[in-house]
Fold:
Amino acid sequence: MKNSKPYKELFVPTQVFGDASGQEVFRETGVFTLYELAKQLKQLKLI
Structure:
């Protein structure tokens, strides 16, 4: 069976961050706290 998922996540939850062009810039598997999520988004200059 062909994998139709574009980001090929293997575990839940998986966070995939992409830039404006759709390129993956960061991936994290596991639970993210709100603090960790905000910190990562700031480092990527997405917020």
Q: What stands out?
A: Helices lie at 34-43. Strands lie at 14-18, 24-29. The first strand starts at residue 14 and ends at 18. Residues 34-43 form the longest helix (10 residues).
